[in-house]
UniProtKB/TrEMBL annotation:
Pfam families: Glyco_hydro_76. This is Predicted alpha-1,6-mannanase, GH76 family. InterPro entries: 6-hairpin_glycosidase_sf, Glyco_hydro_76, MUG_Protein. GO terms for biological process: carbohydrate metabolic process.
């Protein structure tokens, strides 16, 4: 991977801005504030946002190895340990799933990974066939079951991952658009369409394809991933391929998550050079990632990225949220991932 490529330079600039503005060191530990100094609520500590901070730092370390980043990763790990009193968990299963993915990205053999995957697997409600959003919740949604399926697919609980992925497809896939709806609560489907739910559905299909026991199973998972990439492409077509924005707060991360798993799809399907459909899907996923990375970069102002790729960044409101800047950085690292693929 070319360390001097424009995509690498952009991702490095995003990383530098996030670390400078939001990450604070306290001796041997570090964690990120929710906003820059002086903004109300700036010192709030978000478990879910830290899962994505750890994940994207690991992406950056793979793309641009640097011992200083390795030390920062270790300091943030210590910070999460301190802030969670060593448990690395919350009552929200979606948050636990995302943190599990971050830890798997960092070290698949970390003993905390086994503890968290066991927590996810044991929390599946056998009467529903899915994970609730949180302890005691009646909401069963894609934000919990999508990342849990990916995490479990990389563990010894692959059968649970297959079941969760199938539950999402059967329960939440929208027959009109092919996109994944948000969740179901008390038997009623919540029809909201969010970018990150499409991302994790693509991610779980690819994770299951990677470890498929035979060619038929692999092709079935690949077919689901292809269908989802095409659905996202249609969804974004009227807006030049730009992802729908979701504002600040947790929504600031949504598009970055979709970009991450589209980049995985672009890489996966680029491998099969003899398959025309796979090459076309790879190109479609690549183009979606690159268009959104370009729009975010072009709208950058004073080191800040916009919560909406359709407008320039502003030094106020949603654009000051750590989540928004992390989401942009994730998208730019995804662009690094696809930048070496041939079209």
């Amino acid at each position: 991977m070319d360390a001097e490529s424009p995509a690498q330079a952009r991702a490095m600039a995003a990383e530098s801005a996030v670390v400078r503005r939001y990450v604070h060191r306290y001796g041997p530990v570090a964690w990120a504030h929710a906003g820059p100094t002086g903004v109300p609520g700036a010192t709030t500590w978000h478990y879910w946002w830290h899962a994505h901070l750890l994940h994207v730092l690991r992406d950056a370390q793979e793309h641009r190895p640097d011992p200083r980043r390795g030390r920062l990763l270790r300091a943030i790990h210590r910070g999460v340990t301190l802030r969670t009193l060593g448990r690395w968990t919350t009552p929200f299963y979606d948050d636990v799933a995302w943190m599990t993915l971050a830890l798997q990205r960092y070290d698949l053999h970390d003993r905390r990974v086994d503890r968290l995957t066991r927590r996810l697997g044991d929390a599946v409600d056998p009467t529903v066939g899915a994970l609730p959003w949180a302890v005691g919740s009646a909401l069963y949604n894609a934000p919990a079951n999508g990342p849990a399926a990916i995490a479990l697919a990389w563990s010894a609980r692959r059968g649970s991952a297959v079941d969760l992925d199938a539950w999402v497809a059967a329960t939440l896939d929208d027959p009109a658009t092919g996109l994944v709806r948000d969740g179901v609560e008390h038997g009623t489907v919540r029809s909201e369409l969010w970018t990150y739910n499409q991302g994790v559905a693509i991610g779980s299909a690819l994770a299951l394809a990677e470890g498929a026991p035979d060619a038929d199973a692999r092709e079935a998972h690949e077919a689901r991933a292809i269908s989802l990439v095409r659905a996202v492409e249609r969804w974004c077509e009227a807006d030049g391929g730009l992802f729908p924005a979701a504002g600040g707060g947790d929504g600031g991360l949504f598009s970055g998550i979709l970009a991450r798993y589209l980049a995985e799809a672009a890489e996966w399907f680029a491998r099969d050079v003899a398959n025309d459909e796979h090459r076309e899907v790879s190109r479609a996923a690549h183009d979606l990632v690159h268009r959104n990375a370009e729009a975010l970069w072009n709208g950058r102002r004073d080191g800040l990225f916009s919560a909406d790729p359709r407008r320039p960044a502003r030094a106020e409101g949603d654009d000051l949220d750590l989540s928004v800047q992390l989401g942009a950085w994730i998208t730019l690292e995804a662009d690094v991932q696809v930048s070496g693929l041939t079209s």
